[in-house]
Each structure stands twice: as structure tokens, then as C-alpha cells.
Design brief:
The protein has a domain of 172 residues: Phosphatidic acid phosphatase type 2/haloperoxidase (Vanadium-containing Chloroperoxidase, domain 1). A 4-stranded mixed beta sheet has the order 1-2-3-4. Strand 1 and strand 2 form a beta hairpin. Helix 5 packs antiparallel against helix 6. By secondary structure, the protein is α+β, with helices and mostly antiparallel strands.
């Protein structure tokens, strides 16, 4: 009986690394911060043009401060695999997506940019009497001020790629070309909610629930990390508190003048 030929077996191929694992293995080059290296690993397909090229002057964890051509840039690396920020992102972004749910979530996100709060403030000013006018003005002012501060003053200072850049993310709608940190929609919503809650404290749970929903919608749509929304919320609360104080003070002075 003929002897059986030995069966040759090809060596097993090593398992392919996930994109998140590849980002974790990237080592910074000489003079390059860990934050910049992680950002470049995330952003192979669309590298931001305004990433700093100089060595960081200060670095702490995922945050690195650069001075490039006299301009200060703070690079915030995307959250690493296994961290709380990453797990929350995967949980919220991974919730079921349907045509109907995505439509409603997108509408909530768009209204949270400021349009919804400004429209609500105008309606309240028309229908709410003297108190409603002050509350409406404070809400509209705070929401617009938060949008301006984040989009024009704060966000250009930071360099953090959007979560959809070269990542396993479900993205719904447009892909914003600017950086991710912090969330302007969330800041605007929390500013409006905070200002309005000062005038109507009993409505605070509903108002903050709506603002939180806007922040979660930005993560679900794949355009922000949870930490972007959290920091945006803190900024919004600060601006909303100032807006409420400003218009309450103006209202108090007007009442004094009327009584004198």
C-alpha cells in the first residue's frame, strides 16, 4: 500500500490588529507628543492641516500644549481603548440605528445648536409676560453666547479629531470638518437650560434632560466623544448662570426704577 504523503501546513497568520489596537501601539517620534502621535494614528485618511509640528512645551497624559509660530495649540488625543470615554462612546454610538430614530435624533441635535433654545426664548418672551420676557432673553442670549464662545474662541484652540475619522463608528448625517473638542451643541443646550431653570426651577429636570439628550445625540450620531459633550455641558452651565444673573440683575434694577 502506498505511503501517505505528509500534508504540508502553512504557518498560521497572526490575527489582524484592530484600528484601536494599532493606535495604542503607535510610538511618538522624536520631539512629538503622545497626543499628536495618537491623533495621526487615528487620522490616516484625513490628516488635519492645523496639527502642530513642534515639540510640546508641556504634556500631561492625553493632553499636550504646543506653541507653533507664536500660536498656542492644545492637542487632545482621542480616548484610548478600554477607557471609560471609549466604552461610553461605543455604547451610545452602538445603540440601534433606524431611519426613523436617526431622523428624530438628528432633529434634536440640530435644534440643540441654538435654534431651538432661541425659538423657545422668543416664544416665551411673547407669551410669558414680564418674567417670560426676561427668561426668554436670558435663554436666547446664553445659548447664542455659548455657541459663539465654543465655536469661535475655545474650539480653535484645541486639536482633537472627530471620532468618525478612521474609526469603527456609525455616522449619521454630515461629517463636520472642524475639530471635536468641546461640543458646541451641548454647550449651547446646557447654557439655555441653565438660564431658563433660574426663572422656572420646577422645570429644571425637564430642561436638563433635554440638554443631556442633545449631548447624547451628538455621540449617537458619531460626531463627538462623550468627554466632548461633558466639557461642553460644563461650559454651558457656566455661561447660562452668567446669562441668568445678568438679566435678573437688569430686571431688578428696572423694578426699582418703576417703584421710585
Amino acid at each position: 500500500m502506498a505511503a501517505k504523503k505528509p500534508v504540508s501546513r502553512s504557518p498560521a497568520k497572526p490575527a489582524a490588529k484592530s484600528k484601536n489596537a494599532e493606535a495604542e501601539d503607535v510610538k511618538p517620534k522624536d520631539g512629538e507628543s503622545k497626543a499628536v502621535a495618537a491623533t495621526k494614528a487615528d487620522d490616516k485618511d484625513a490628516k488635519p492641516k492645523d496639527m502642530p509640528t513642534t515639540a510640546p512645551v508641556a504634556e500631561a497624559g492625553p493632553v499636550a500644549v504646543h506653541v507653533d509660530g507664536g500660536a498656542v495649540a492644545v492637542v487632545v488625543a482621542p480616548p484610548g481603548a478600554g477607557g471609560l470615554d471609549r466604552r461610553l462612546y461605543e455604547l451610545i454610538n452602538g445603540l440601534p440605528h433606524t431611519a426613523t430614530s436617526d431622523r428624530y435624533v438628528s432633529v434634536m441635535s440640530d435644534l440643540g445648536e441654538g435654534l431651538g433654545w432661541v425659538a423657545g426664548g422668543i416664544a416665551l418672551g411673547i407669551l410669558g409676560g414680564s418674567k417670560g420676557r426676561r427668561a426668554g432673553l436670558a435663554t436666547a442670549f446664553s445659548s447664542l453666547a455659548a455657541t459663539y464662545m465654543v465655536q469661535v474662541r475655545i474650539k480653535p484652540l484645541f486639536r482633537r479629531v472627530r471620532p468618525f475619522v478612521n474609526r469603527e463608528a456609525r455616522v449619521v448625517g454630515i461629517r463636520p470638518p472642524d475639530h471635536s473638542f468641546p461640543s458646541g451643541h451641548t454647550a449651547s443646550s446646557f447654557a439655555g437650560a441653565t438660564a431658563l431653570a433660574f426663572y422656572y426651577p420646577k422645570a429644571a429636570p425637564l430642561l436638563y434632560g433635554l440638554a443631556t439628550g442633545v449631548g447624547a445625540s451628538r455621540v449617537h450620531l458619531g460626531v463627538h466623544f462623550p468627554s466632548d459633550a461633558a466639557v461642553g455641558g460644563v461650559i454651558g452651565i457656566g455661561i447660562g448662570t452668567f446669562g441668568a444673573w445678568l438679566f435678573m440683575r437688569r430686571g431688578g434694577r428696572a423694578a426699582v426704577r418703576r417703584s421710585s
